[in-house]
Amino acid sequence: MSLRESYRLAPRSRGLPPLNTGGAGAGRLLASRRSRTWSFLRHLDWLLVLVVLALCVLGSLLVWSATKPSQLQLGANPRTYLYKDVLWFGIGLVLMVAVAMLDVRRIRAWTWPVYGITLLGLLAVLSPLGRASAAVHGAHSWINLPGGFQIEPSEFAKLGLVLICAWVLSRLGDGGKRPRLREVALAVVCAAPLAALVVKEPALGVALVLLAVLIGMIVVSGLRLRWLVALALAGAGGVWLALKMHVLKSYQLSRITSFTHQSSGLSSSNYQAEQAKIAVGSGGMYGHGLFHGALVAGSYIPSQSTDFIFTVAGEELGFVGSIAIVGLLAVVVWRAMRIAARADDQFGMLVASGIAVWFAFQTFVNVGMTIGIMPITGLPLPFISYGGSAAFADMIAIGILQSVHRKRTGLAAAFGTIGPAPVIK
Amino acid sequence: MSSASRRRLWVLHLVVAALIISLGVRLWDVQVMNSRSYSTLAAADMTESVVVPSVRGEILDDTGQPLVGDKTSLVVSVNNARLSQRPDATAVLTRLAALLHMKLKTLQDKVRLCTRNVPAPCWSGSPYQPVPVDLNASDQIALQIMENPGQFPDISAAVQPVISYPEPDGANPAQVLGYLQPITPQEVKQRHLTVTGFSGVDLVGQAGLEEQYDAQLRGTPGIQKVSINADGVVTGTVSQTAPKAGDDLVTSINAPLQADVQSLLADTIHKSQAMGHDVKDGAAVVLTTTGRVVAMASYPDYNPSVWTGGISEKEFKYLFRDGGPAYNYVTQGEYAPGSTWKVTTTAAAVQQGFSLYGQYACPATVDIGGRSFANDGNPNEGYMSLQEALIQSCDTVFFQLGYDMWLKDQPNINSAQNPNAPLQPMVKMEEKWGFGYDPGVDIPEQSAGSVPARQWLYWLWKDNAHTGLDWCKYGREYGSLDQQYDYDDCQDGWVWLPGQAANAAIGQGYVTVTPLQLADAYAALANGGTLYSPRIGEALLSPSGKVVERINPPVIRHLPVAGSTLAYIRNALQGVITSGTAAEPFGGFPLSKVCVAGKTGTAQAIGQQPNSVFASFAPCYHPKYVVVVMIPNSGYGADFAAPTVRKIWDDIYGLEGAKAALQNGQPPTSLPTITASGSIKPPAGYTGGKP
Hints:
The complex is a heterodimer of chains A (425) and B (691).
Chain A: H1 3-9, H2 28-42, H3 46-74, H4 80-101, H5 104-109, H6 111-126, H7 128-131, E1 143-144, E2 150-151, H8 153-169, H9 181-200, H10 204-221, H11 225-244, H12 250-260, H13 268-282, H14 294-297, H15 309-342, H16 346-370, H17 388-415
Antiparallel strand pairs in A: 1-2
Chain B: H1 3-33, H2 35-46, E1 47-52, E2 59-60, E3 66-78, H3 80-83, H4 89-99, H5 104-111, E4 131-137, H6 139-147, E5 155-164, H7 174-177, E6 180-182, H8 185-191, E7 203-205, H9 208-212, H10 214-218, E8 222-228, E9 234-241, E10 248-251, H11 255-274, E11 282-288, E12 293-299, H12 313-320, H13 329-332, H14 342-351, E13 360-361, E14 365-368, E15 371-374, E16 383-384, H15 386-392, H16 395-408, H17 411-414, H18 425-432, H19 454-464, H20 471-474, H21 481-492, H22 498-505, H23 515-527, E17 530-532, E18 537-541, E19 547-550, E20 555-558, H24 563-578, E21 597-603, E22 611-618, E23 625-631, H25 641-653, E24 673-674, E25 680-681
Parallel strand pairs in B: 2-10
Antiparallel strand pairs in B: 1-8, 2-3, 3-4, 3-5, 6-7, 8-9, 10-18, 11-12, 11-23, 13-16, 14-15, 17-20, 18-19, 21-22, 22-23, 24-25
């Protein structure tokens, strides 16, 4: 019996009986719903939930601190961004729970529609709809929605990529079969339009995340080592060609080259990097305290509530706070990898791995650029940076992780074991 | 899950761990190991030094009346060069007008530039200079402007010293005071001055006393360290050193006398002009015999308030045109001294062995070097003493003395082209009296005049024979008079000729002096031979009233002339008034009250009226003051300069119905004092102003 069949066979009543049915007089329907709710809650990765909640709270505080001085200067409500940030994560939490409640098979079934919507969103950005919108930092990355809202489809592109790659690479089933080169090629073909549209915006940072996620997922998918080596060589050749053909815009190149020879003058990209490093470094061991960062108060760092939010943490919370944030994010990644390792199907494993790579890479690049070990690219810090689209995408990703996890633990509970997924033949 | 995937997941674990660890290590490095250096950088990022301007010291007359006043007030300025670039410029001005209780139209007129077809009021200063629109704003208004940069962009409200020229008793020694102008980058670099960057404040003395005493007058600006944000908006004060106000400069200028001298000079010049003479400039100076300037009037003059709040280009061009009112003719006017010069010739002749008690011929003409030199307007007067020669101002006596000294010198070295030729004895004496050199007065504008030393002649010829005036090109042996001169100068311009010696002996030819040099030389003659470097400044007083520095005229030298010779000359000059060339203009002067001695001078110029010169001192015994008036191109010394000097003596001593400018004819013996409240008290016995 395949695992797929075992799902089918698993009776719904196999869920754990409710601990407390609310007394003998409680109705059966109520009991059933309660037991289902209980089952859902029981099978969440609570550590992941708590860590994500902690990051959201920290993020909101930092956004508040980062935006307060400039808001005061404008004579506006200093808590505007705090409220908005809380709202975004509130909605994000709802999305997370909603997605977590979905069966991972349903998520898999929705892969192609999600992929299609993502592509349409990215195309919309490049259409007059997006072009008319405010060009932020010389890039078109937003779609204006009615009511003054804006949406950033490139954030959702990461989700789309994770899902489509997982779908393609797990096509051959869960029977321990490695994907063939054909699947890998298909994954690359599916990823290409996403990446191309993101590069076109241009949102280089997001494109790098997409690339990292794609590579990570191909590696984890179990493709034969020789093919991996061949792909790596082909990739290196591609990069060389890209440089040769001037695919990168000059400002993108200057960011990267200014990174390689730092302190060669205060060009605007170097200025950002220097200011960020100064802010983080001046925090010292314990920081100046929330709302007490002088550089934060002086709005010295551009985009300090979004891409450079980590500088606020660095200056105000010091090494202790910074390492705590990095640590919490590391826990998120670790939980994602753990969920991947324990997933009982290839799709779930790949989805979880993709999300792990996504968060790990994005965290490394974002934090790294504020302390001078990565070039400056426009990437938000997961769960911390201000921004609705990123918050929604991050929370949906957590929801997917929960879904994969719930499925696994739910199944394990059904078989009464917690451990490696039983292989039922 | 395939076992390959499981292995690869472990690899992923390792990669992620490596990334996280490298972040942690780098964070430790940046935040813990190098935190201090980043904190230093952060501090530098966040503070800016703001220069708090100091209050500039005032310039006072001898009784403490301000000639240049200075008070601070809150000045609201509009940086129109930047504001006009903003789309909301009109809205900003509307808000500002309401705040200043001004009509919008009035405000807009104030800040618009004075260009063609723009009627006043308009801004005549530099377009880049913030335009002061309210010179005396209240604290409340200033605070509203400073605290709302969003509401009032490019509008500033700052404490600014406002210079005023009160003209006490009508005294306006504009060229002596000098003026203030925005500092130039070169000056900042040279003098290491701290500047605020606000052009209305960063003024530096550009001429006269304002330039000479700029360092003392300007004080020390305070430095305020303020924290700023990235937009440059000030968020607080970190540290502060208070500015130190500049010292006040007390001068020996007496305002009532200065006013009188100015108007007397102007009246005389207007009188000469009314007679059809083309008089353009003139100078009058009153000096104590110890080298202090009591009055210094230069014609034409101007109202110094044109400098406040930015001068227009038109006004600037008017002031600085050739012969314009910016020139101080007392120290910069180089005029032929005429017969007033005969005192140095007398001293030189006596030194050369000509007897003080000998008899000298005063014929109608003398022939020297093939030319005939006439005694101005006079027939043969026979033999006379040197004293009489001075009293009558007999030119032929001095022509002959000049020639005799030329003969006694080494005629053979005169023709050599030698840039290091030795001085002629006569020139040597003249230079000892301070001529040919800057007198070292305490204003930068001063000229040395000229005495035709051999070296001087050599360089004059060198500079003009084939370059400069190009004598050899334009000169014609039988051309016009000018062409003949050019021809002669080309042939032997470097040679000290007998005719030149004769001309130089009566203060003509190449001899020029400034009125101040002449007064200074006469002061040395009057005081028994001490040549001072004149001083206008008397003392520097700190804002708390302490005397920071007393300024005394330094002694340049003692004249190499015997006291008896000087006394002899002084006697002669006394005779000039009683029975000589100045007897007529001084007719009826109460000499019994104040004995005045002096010498007329009338230097001829071709095709023009002569330079009218009179140099005098009083009282005759133990002289206190020297008065010199020089008015070129106006007429005879006895006709214009001498009557003016007479009236100045009247004003000094209160004679002939005039009110004495100086009490008992004495300058104040003590300095004005600054009281604890900051007000200025005149010296004892003076009321400050006309007594």
